[in-house]
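Cont'd.
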Amino acid sequence: MSSQPSVSPDKPVRHYQLPPGLGGKLWAWRYLILRRVTQVGVLLLFFATLHWGWAMTGEPVLTGNLSAAELLGLVPMADPFATLQMLLTGHWMETEVLIGAGIILGFYWLVGGRAYCAWVCPINPVTDLANWLRGRLGIRDSRGASRRLRYGALALALLLSPLTGVAAFEWVSPISIMHREVIYGLGMGWVVVGGVFLFDLLVLRHGWCGHLCPLGGFYRLVGEASLVRVRFDGPTCTHCGDCLQVCPAPHVLNLKEAASRGFVASGDCSNCGRCIPVCPEDTLAFGLRPMPTKTTTTSPERRMQP
Amino acid sequence: MSDKANRARRRFLGNILRGTGLAAIGGGAWAYLIQQESRATPFALRPPGALPEPDFAATCIKCGKCVEACPYDTLRLASVGDPYPLGTPFFEPREVPCYMCEDIPCVPPCPTGALDEALTDIREADMGLAVLIDQEHCLSYRGLRCEVCHRVCPVSDEAITIEHRPRKLSKHGIFVPVVHSEHCTGCGVCEKHCPTAEPTIKVLPRRLAQGRIGEHYRLGWEHDAGITKEFHAAPGKPKGGGDSGGALDYLNEGEL
């Protein structure tokens, strides 16, 4: 496709330079640092509640894990995709998990569907590391695979759940395996995590998160309508392409569309914030999706004017 | 049809074919993996109140809150390589058995109902069934007064009782533990404390440990089966039971 940015590793032209001082570097890396903090922080809260008995006002801080959890003994949370699969097996469940799934669905509708992928998912640092190492080792991109594969995986998960009688993706999800390993102890689950790492490193760039993961596909669909988006100030863009080079899903930075709509619309954008600091013109920034307004010509205020 | 349209159509059909093939292969492998993981390992002992296994496998979200709530660290979530369905809670009584907390703290945290809150009396729990699986090496069966399983059993004298049996011609008897399935909760304290190197009493999921009498069997001494209720002596014959007495008692009456 001609609108696809070139991801050829031959001649990556970068205009952006990291600031020389430490403070400047930290500022440039602010979203990366924040993301690692939330990723580790979420796991730490689970871990500390379980192993060190962290509590606030007498209630355990965060029990459970990313599949289902409870905050301060009060707020239930549940993985909406896992819950959907379980419902598809034909089992109605307690309201707690249904409310919890609704809360999480609502939360990611607010902050951007795939914000889960970039800010919470424990697999993300693994695949980020693989991608970084890929660049360092100069591993060339093989023939790309379709990013639509994950919808196939998503459809299969929803199809296999009623057929096998168990939540199909939840049973084999490397994400669940990894966070259980982190929270509950060492096991062979790291082999699976290592498999994902090697797949991303050697087989397919952004292979797991960008192409296969059905949970990412699910949250992408949520993100199509979500509130927090990367705003795009069209007129200031010089089309230098630096944002495209750091973006793990460069097809979301369809600059023409972003310029006309004022924000990055694709639900595939994970709100990771990589593109924002590298933009030399400050064209990109986090913001809210503009409310759908009626076209200016039919705006009632405009019409009321004499 | 133009050449271009033809090529587009060919590509379209090819894509459909490739997609279908990929879905079939991937889906098949995936389904097989799930079957292996969730179904092929029937030995897992579940927390109290767990739904029957297929329903439990479908509704357990693998959050580990039951594991977290257990004060004895009895429960664990199965990791990759454990011989139990991945991510689900289980316990191994020989490591840590279920100590049958009165308030059953592991059940209410379950967000999905995979652990059924209808269970309010831990004595009604049904985690499995203790089976004296190896009489050959059971110390009690060998004639020692072991009976440890009976003494440690939290439902002692109901779930496990001691029966006396004669020991061939010896004046010493043997005292064997007998498990009663209607009272055993499968907590596994007996398995934990069995003093043999390898326990001779083990807790198994009920569907492995227990048989079932077919519905059509009628135990005449328990049921008023129609055939005995409706029995009437044939007319013209003497009533059964030998009411004259003489014919039955003649051996004792010294008539011979």
